[in-house]
Recover the amino acids of this structure.
């Protein structure tokens, strides 16, 4: 535990020091309040950490001493944090109550951080890929579309935590990095709201259902939310004459954003247009664009080097792929035909563009996953008051910075709705904090004008109470794990599908074996060489429904060094039989594979 704590402390200090140094070099740190400067420093430092680890992995320098040395080199940057402007504001009784609520939220997060990772996506790739790279000692390209052959900046910070402090450092680092958006929300709110309201909004953001689900896991949205907030605010400030420093910072944040996820290209595009259309025009856009390319281009170059496609596999059929790339037309067609119905719950229309946020909040489609990863009720409660305030001050609305903030967020939402690959509501989490700041500032203005501030506080209290109740329920399994003696195997067996299979493989397979694994949620837990088979997003070993040739299957297994295939029992065959099960048993019947061993 002590090693893990030291590792997370070192990474946190790196982020603060490196980010503060970058902001000071840009000349922006002195313009920010202390809390806001701290938040911006952590966000930019987090991005710089992921950027740096990419190059260390590419060079094969992933030894703990190399990462620790980078952390030490960033320490002088901490001195720059003194440049932030002192904040003013009285600590009312409400502020102290909200601070206690924040402490409770963070304590509940700590329970999750002390338990083993059990989130399916994290075990399938967010944590699995950093572990594979760390085990190999150098950067790997895994030809699996959308989750592994995609920008991985956030996951590189997980690699640093694993290298310095093991799994416990990894889960603690997810906790700490998940808090960053709370600090940033507070910092932005302090520009427009008193201290107690700002603290309350930070507490709401950190206890959102989407944050409870994703904040302590490897999901990237709570981390990319930091980049979005910094990018949007800086891009708006870059529109003023001579403001090239904000354009630089906006470019850095957008670079980290596009290096974290393909869909980060959407807010980066909107921020770029905002900078270009400002008073600095081409000059500001050039500064923005160069910073974005330097910080965000490496993963697209890595994809292009390995496959020929910088956004693999989205340009398949439009550009030439490298000869070693296994992706093919049948796989591209199957992925497109299969994933769209799985990821799109409603039509892409003007009606649903407006209705989606309401429906996803009140009565979500199963595709949205809003029942367990939603945004809570605060946005809908604030919206009518915000609209009333906007109408009352409509003559001064155009010049307010929060108007521009809301506009950038809403345009990005529109692009996501019509162009994004999925309608899962948690993918919108990065857009929510700055929008909530704008809505709350407008709603409070309306409440002050019509004198119902106490009612607005009551609404905030109800929302917080509901979210805290959800947080308590969510934390029960982690508290039980700690209370029952931290039995790792029992916890994982109860919360991870196929954990018994991972145990069996780790016990019975050796370093000379390579396993074809058609289940995704134990990738991180399997410590023997393996290839994760998936019918939708990989074609190294094809297991689509139309893959019915056992000889082709055998040739692909041999080409990738597969010695073992995880398959179901022969008695399970039928209309729903899994392709690798059927093909494996055909190989047994042909005498090309040994009879199975049961796990």
């Amino acid at each position: 535990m002590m090693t893990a704590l030291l590792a997370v402390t070192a990474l946190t200090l790196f982020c603060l020091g490196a980010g503060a140094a970058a902001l000071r070099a840009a000349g922006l740190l002195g313009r920010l309040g202390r809390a806001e400067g701290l938040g911006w420093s952590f966000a930019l430092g987090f991005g710089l950490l992921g950027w740096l680890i990419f190059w260390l992995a590419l060079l094969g320098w992933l030894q703990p001493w190399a990462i620790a040395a980078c952390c030490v080199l960033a320490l002088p940057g901490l001195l720059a944090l003194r440049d932030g402007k002192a904040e003013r504001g009285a600590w009312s009784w409400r502020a102290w109550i909200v601070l206690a609520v924040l402490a409770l939220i963070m304590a509940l997060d700590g329970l999750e951080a002390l338990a083993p990772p059990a989130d399916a996506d994290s075990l399938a790739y967010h944590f699995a890929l950093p572990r594979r790279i760390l085990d190999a000692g150098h950067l790997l390209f895994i030809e699996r579309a959308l989750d592994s052959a995609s920008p991985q900046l956030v996951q590189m910070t997980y690699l640093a935590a694993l290298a310095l402090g093991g799994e416990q450092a990894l889960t603690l680092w997810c906790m700490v990095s998940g808090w960053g958006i709370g600090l940033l929300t507070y910092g932005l709110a302090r520009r427009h709201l008193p201290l107690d309201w700002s603290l309350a909004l930070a507490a709401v953001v950190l206890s959102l259902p989407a944050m409870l689900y994703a904040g302590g896991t490897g999901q990237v949205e709570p981390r990319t939310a930091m980049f979005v907030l910094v990018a949007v605010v800086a891009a708006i400030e870059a529109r003023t004459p001579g403001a090239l420093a904000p354009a630089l910072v906006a470019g850095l944040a957008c670079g980290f954003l596009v290096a974290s996820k393909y869909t980060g290209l959407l807010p980066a595009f909107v921020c770029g247009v905002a900078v270009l259309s400002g008073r600095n025009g081409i000059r500001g856009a050039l500064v923005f664009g160069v910073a974005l390319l330097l910080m965000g281009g490496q993963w697209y170059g890595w994809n292009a080097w390995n496959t020929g496609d910088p956004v693999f596999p989205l340009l398949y059929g439009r550009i030439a792929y490298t000869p070693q790339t296994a992706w093919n037309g049948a796989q591209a067609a199957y992925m497109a035909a299969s994933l769209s119905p799985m990821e799109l719950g409603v039509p892409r229309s003007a009606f649903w563009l407006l209705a989606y946020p309401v429906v996803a909040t009140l009565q979500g489609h199963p595709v949205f996953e809003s029942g367990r990863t939603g945004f809570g009720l605060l946005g809908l409660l604030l919206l009518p008051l915000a609209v009333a305030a906007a109408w009352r001050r409509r003559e001064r609305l155009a010049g307010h910075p929060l108007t521009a903030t809301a506009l950038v967020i809403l345009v990005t939402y529109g692009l996501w709705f019509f162009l994004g690959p999925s309608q899962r509501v948690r993918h919108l989490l990065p857009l929510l904090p700055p929008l909530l700041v704008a809505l709350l500032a407008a709603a409070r203005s309306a409440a002050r004008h019509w004198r119902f501030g106490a009612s607005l506080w009551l609404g905030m209290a109800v929302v917080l109470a509901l979210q805290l109740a959800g947080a308590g329920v969510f934390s029960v399994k982690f508290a039980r794990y700690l209370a029952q003696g931290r039995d790792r195997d029992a916890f994982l067996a109860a919360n991870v599908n196929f954990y018994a299979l991972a145990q069996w493989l780790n016990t019975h397979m050796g370093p000379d074996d390579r396993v074809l694994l058609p289940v995704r949620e134990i990738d991180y837990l399997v410590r023997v060489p393996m290839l994760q088979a998936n019918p939708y997003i990989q074609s190294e070993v094809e297991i689509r429904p139309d893959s019915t040739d056992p000889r082709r299957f055998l040739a692909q297994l041999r080409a990738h060094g597969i010695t073992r295939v995880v398959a179901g029992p022969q008695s399970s065959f039928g209309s729903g039989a899994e392709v690798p099960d059927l093909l494996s048993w055909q190989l047994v019947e042909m005498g090309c594979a040994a009879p199975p061993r049961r796990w």
In short: The chain has a mean pLDDT of 91. Residues 242 and 280 are 6 Å apart (CA to CA).
